[in-house]
């Protein structure tokens, strides 16, 4: 009980000094708890939605990943409707006609589809829809020219009843009038949904009045879902997917769960980085608090306290810090989750705050994490406190210095760094990406831990170098700042290491991202001869009507269509595997300057011919002249002659197999031929501007289509990589904020620790302005030390990663010096800002009181 009282008294006495450590715990726990609450809420929301839309038993086509991309969903025969209605135990059968491969344009010819990645869905209106939505304005669709739109999409795009919309689908474009607005009873998952009468949905979305996309069955009273499933399966056979409501819900959860899991673990990974950085802050805090209480600890030892009791006392303080920070962090996590929900709402996925889900495990995880991390981080300082002898403490000798331990630490750090460097060197020289990936995964943590361990040794060297460049120009004040930074290399190393971790990741990702953009740009310049690239922005295939509009453009030398065909390919060694064949027009050999190791690419466009990639040819012993058995999904078997083997030394279409569109069409039924995925266009000589204008005019009625020239495409790549990097930088900002708190805390506690010294320096003539400058310069040099370590380490990681990317065709190394320079200068600014409060406090000290401090 005495230990507890002492610990509580010390904690309350130093609560101001503990504040920043508590904030670090708070932020880390908040990020973890916020992630858990947000993903749990998303799961609960989708569970509720899936439960409200699932039929007692559903019948759907067998899932076929090898299906051709015809722009229409897989279907079932309409004749199945009558058979299902006769199954014993079926109370009602509702046929579904649904497609997610549509685009909808408003009166201004703007797409009203979601920008969040969610689909635009067209489906038929029936009684089952009333489980999830209700018509809050107008009425249900009653004819071929009517539709009902979901309220979220209507509100976002200003659509109201009476407005007309144009639907762009594979079977053909059509115009409908909005006669009703439907509102979700739970939460709209972000999709734009249009409801049509059943006949219209069949004809316009599926392209057939004799097919449906699936059936929903309602069980009769007294018949369970499992019983009905058995009877349906017995009646229709095993050629269909038959699921109960629970199975449908689980299947949908599995699909969305994979996306949510990626989001969840990515966010938790960044939270883990913040936790790691926070450990350095807590270690420094308790190390300095122990050093400042050396005499107090000595007195406790002198009156009989054992080493174990001193250890317990410090650990109890850490426990209190962990509990306070974790409890506040749990509350912060819930607030963060609410913020994320509002952010998702602004992107089109409106999440009801009433669905906020805080599982019992979330606060437990937050509390346990915060407490364990804090106690473990405080253990080493607490252990050192227990080693203080009563006599040395009473003489104010400080915590015991262990020269041998310092040498061992330096040796271990150098060993780990050396092993990590060897692993990175091995990764850079690897012949295969898989082998190199394992080595870089080993090298990164080894070098990181090595730099952290060897930090105090590096501080003595690097800080002196930085001081020569940055501090010496400030005269005696600069030299004092340098000596203060070098006074305790362990403390300086730990403070800088916290900043190093975040900046190392920023530098590595910057190098990788910049190299990817430079490599892709280089490949475009070298390989692509086409002037324009025409694609659907929603990654849907280009509909026939859209393709016809594109091909009507003038001032074009030629168009090249690019179609993905799924097929099973049997090689001469007898192995069969599913492959994607790129069926293109013969002019593709002009639009893509692809290197070959055998034959010529244009020969692959002969009748019943194809090309294979270099690696595939080596793996299967294929050479020019060999014939492969190709069975396209839904098509006839073909014997195709290999007329070219393309080089793998590229990032554009690496591993692609080419053949003529005419060859693919000769082995596939017309209705199973995939739609065009992309169109390339080459302008007529000297008519590039006219061709661009003509293409844009040709697709003006198709808002989903984007016409890009090569410069536009390069910008698209740069923007996509930039958006990803900015998102990652934003998440890493949490770790950097915690690191900055560490710098502030170290300086604040250092000022308290040096109170008498500051008083003496003021007494002998150091002005307040000089004192503040000294503290600021000390902070700047620590921040620059961390930045140099982090940026140097991160660039090394990034360069090794680029060597592995070069094996995949991304062979250009591009170090973004402007970004690196900005981060380095920004680190100095951060150091300056971090010192403002500690420097102000140091400058305001009363000289006599400071000298009298014991």
TrEMBL record:
Residues 270-390, 731-846 form the ABC3 transporter permease C-terminal domain. Residues 57-76, 95-144 are annotated as: Disordered. Keywords: Cell membrane, Membrane, Transmembrane, Transmembrane helix. It holds the Pfam family FtsX. Residues 67-76, 112-126 have a biased composition (Polar residues). Residues 127-143 have a biased composition (Basic and acidic residues). It is a multi-pass membrane protein. Residues 19-234, 492-693 form the MacB-like periplasmic core domain. It comes from the Bacteria. It is found in: Cell membrane. Its main location: membrane. The chain crosses the membrane at residues 265-291, 314-340, 360-382, 410-430, 442-475, 496-518, 727-752, 777-800, 820-840. Belongs to the ABC-4 integral membrane protein family. This is FtsX-like permease family protein. It comes from Streptomyces blastmyceticus.
């Amino acid at each position: 009980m005495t230990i507890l009282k002492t610990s509580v008294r010390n904690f309350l006495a130093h609560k101001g000094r503990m504040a920043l450590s508590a904030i670090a715990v708070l932020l880390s726990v908040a990020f973890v708890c916020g992630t858990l609450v947000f993903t749990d809420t998303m799961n609960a929301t989708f569970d509720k939605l899936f439960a409200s839309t699932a039929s007692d038993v559903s019948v759907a086509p067998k899932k076929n990943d090898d299906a051709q991309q015809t722009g229409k969903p897989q279907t079932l025969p309409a004749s199945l409707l009558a058979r299902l209605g006769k199954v014993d135990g079926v109370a009602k059968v509702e046929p579904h006609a649904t497609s997610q491969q549509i685009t909808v344009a408003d009166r201004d010819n703007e797409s009203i589809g979601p920008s969040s990645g969610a689909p635009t869905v067209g489906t038929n209106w029936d009684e089952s829809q009333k489980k999830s939505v209700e018509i809050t304005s107008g009425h249900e669709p009653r004819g071929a020219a009517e539709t009902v739109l979901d309220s979220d999409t209507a509100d976002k795009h200003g659509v109201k009843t009476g407005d007309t919309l144009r639907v762009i689908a594979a079977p053909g474009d059509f115009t409908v009038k909005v006669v009703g607005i439907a509102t979700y009873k739970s939460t709209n998952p972000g999709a734009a949904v249009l409801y049509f009468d059943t006949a219209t949905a069949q004809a316009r979305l599926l392209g057939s009045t004799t097919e449906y996309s699936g059936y929903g069955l309602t069980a009769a009273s007294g018949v369970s879902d499992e019983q009905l499933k058995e009877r349906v399966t017995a009646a229709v056979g095993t050629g269909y997917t038959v699921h109960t409501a629970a199975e449908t819900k689980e299947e949908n959860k599995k699909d969305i769960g994979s996306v949510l899991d990626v989001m969840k673990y990515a966010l938790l990974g960044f939270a883990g980085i913040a936790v790691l950085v926070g450990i350095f802050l807590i270690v420094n805090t308790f190390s300095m608090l122990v050093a400042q209480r050396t005499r107090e600890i000595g007195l406790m030892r002198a009156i009989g306290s054992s080493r174990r009791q001193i250890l317990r006392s410090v650990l109890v303080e850490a426990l209190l810090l962990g509990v306070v920070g974790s409890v506040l962090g749990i509350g912060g996590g819930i607030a963060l989750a609410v913020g994320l929900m509002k952010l998702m709402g602004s992107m089109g996925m409106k999440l009801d705050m009433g669905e906020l889900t805080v599982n019992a495990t979330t606060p437990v995880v937050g509390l346990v994490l915060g407490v364990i991390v804090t106690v473990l981080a405080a253990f080493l300082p607490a252990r050192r406190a227990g080693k203080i002898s009563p006599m040395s403490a009473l003489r104010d000798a400080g915590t015991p210095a262990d020269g041998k331990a310092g040498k061992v630490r330096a040796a271990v750090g150098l060993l780990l760094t050396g092993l990590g460097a060897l692993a990175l060197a091995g990764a850079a020289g690897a012949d295969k990406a898989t082998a190199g990936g394992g080595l870089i995964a080993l090298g990164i943590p080894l070098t990181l831990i090595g730099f952290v361990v060897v930090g105090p040794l590096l501080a003595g060297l690097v800080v002196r170098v930085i001081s020569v460049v940055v501090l010496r120009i400030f005269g005696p004040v600069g030299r004092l700042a340098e000596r203060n930074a070098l006074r305790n290399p362990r403390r300086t190393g730990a403070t800088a290491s916290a900043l190093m971790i975040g900046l190392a990741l920023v530098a590595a990702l910057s190098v990788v991202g910049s190299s990817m953009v430079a490599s892709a740009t280089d490949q475009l310049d070298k390989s692509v001869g086409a002037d324009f690239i025409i694609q659907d922005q929603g990654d849907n295939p280009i509909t026939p009507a859209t393709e016809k509009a594109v091909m009507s453009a003038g001032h074009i030398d030629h168009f090249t269509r690019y179609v993905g065909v799924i097929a099973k390919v049997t090689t001469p060694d007898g192995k069969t595997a599913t492959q994607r064949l790129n069926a293109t027009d013969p002019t593709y050999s002009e639009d893509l300057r692809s290197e070959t190791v055998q034959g010529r690419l244009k020969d692959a466009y002969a009748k019943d011919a194809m090309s294979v990639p270099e690696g595939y040819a080596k793996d299967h012993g294929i050479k020019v002249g060999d014939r492969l058995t190709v069975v396209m999904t839904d098509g006839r078997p073909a014997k195709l002659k290999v007329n070219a083997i393309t080089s793998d030394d590229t990032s554009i279409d690496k591993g692609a197999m080419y053949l003529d569109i005419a060859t693919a069409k000769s082995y596939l039924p017309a209705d199973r031929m995939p739609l065009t995925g992309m169109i390339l266009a080459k302008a007529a000589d000297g008519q590039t501007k006219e061709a661009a204008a003509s293409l844009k005019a040709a697709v003006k009625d198709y808002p989903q289509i984007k016409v890009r020239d090569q410069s536009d495409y390069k910008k698209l790549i740069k923007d996509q990589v930039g958006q990803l990097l900015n998102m990652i930088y934003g998440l890493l900002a949490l770790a950097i904020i915690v690191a900055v708190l560490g710098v502030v805390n170290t300086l604040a506690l250092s000022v308290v620790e040096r109170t008498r010294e500051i008083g003496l320096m003021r007494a002998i003539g150091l002005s307040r302005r000089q004192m503040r400058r000294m503290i600021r310069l000390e902070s700047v040099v620590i921040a620059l030390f961390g930045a140099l370590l982090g940026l140097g380490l991160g660039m090394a990681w990034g360069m090794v990663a680029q060597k592995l990317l070069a094996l995949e065709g991304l062979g250009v190394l591009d170090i973004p010096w402007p970004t690196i320079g900005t981060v380095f200068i920004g680190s100095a600014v951060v150091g300056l800002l971090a010192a403002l409060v500690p420097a102000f406090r140091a400058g305001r000290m009363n000289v006599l009181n400071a000298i009298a401090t014991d």
